[in-house]
Known about the structure:
Elements: E1 7-8, H1 14-18, E2 21-24, E3 31-32, E4 35-36, H2 40-50, E5 54-58, H3 65-74, E6 84-86, H4 87-97, E7 104-108, H5 111-117, E8 122-123, E9 134-137, H6 145-156, E10 160-163, E11 169-171, E12 177-179, H7 181-192, E13 197-198, H8 204-214, E14 219-223, H9 226-235, E15 239-243, E16 260-262
Parallel strand pairs: 1-16, 2-5, 2-14, 5-6, 7-8, 7-9, 9-10, 10-13, 14-15, 15-16
Antiparallel strand pairs: 3-4, 11-12
Helix pairs in contact: 6-7
The structure holds magnesium ion.
Amino acid sequence: MSAQNGTELGSAAHLLEEYDAFAIDLDGVVWRGEVLIPGAIEGLKAIRASGKPLLLLTNNGGYHPNEVVERLAEGGFELALEEVLTTSLVAREWILQNGMKGAPAFILAPPTVAAQLADLLKIRYLETGQTADFVLCGRDTDFNYNRLRMAADAVRGGASFLSLNKDPVMPVENGGMLPGTGSIVAAVEAASGKQATVLGKPEEPMMKAAAERIGYNKVLMLGDRLESDIVGAKRIGWDGALVLTGLTVSDAVLDPRPDHILTSLQALAL
Length: 270
Ligand SMILES: [Mg+2]
């Protein structure tokens, strides 16, 4: 039921009947950092009990689908590998579809991203004297001036320039935030004078890949970030539900307006 401010204060179980499939964001909805969000597992179980397709859809390319399956299994929720879509998987598709297989590449992202692309690219260390035809930005925790310089030189020289997403921050435990991929790619864009092709939500590469798995019609996307989750859903004709356990903690000013607002994923189970 919708309250005056649009928040589903109590049960949102009716959404399980209204929609045919569910796409669910991870960071800020299912967990924050290492900690599962209270009630998230119950919400996922309610979706599973509905018998309808679900897909966990994350801009965080650092997660391997196996890791997502294992972490949720520890919490008591069984998930199939095919029910996880990360930006690293979308990057693999992009590389194959755009003839970049075998390209020398700079990966400004955690080793877990590079490992998932290592069979498709010639990954090069970012050192002076090296160059690349493919530059991919992620949440590069080793970011420094020299890596920025190398990446910008390659992009200026004509390398394909991609970013896993443009999320400026990543929500973690205890209300904390870490600099996100958007912070890294902003620096490379500034230094190179070029704009990156963005793979993750709300952009089409990830939204289309998701829709190919669970459909275009009567799908509800549940996420904590208006600019990626809700905008991405709208872009391909899905409805969007904002979940208030992550980044957007107040529903005072929301544009675009989500179709539903849930205090947590647990509302699906109430
Ligand atoms: Mg999120």
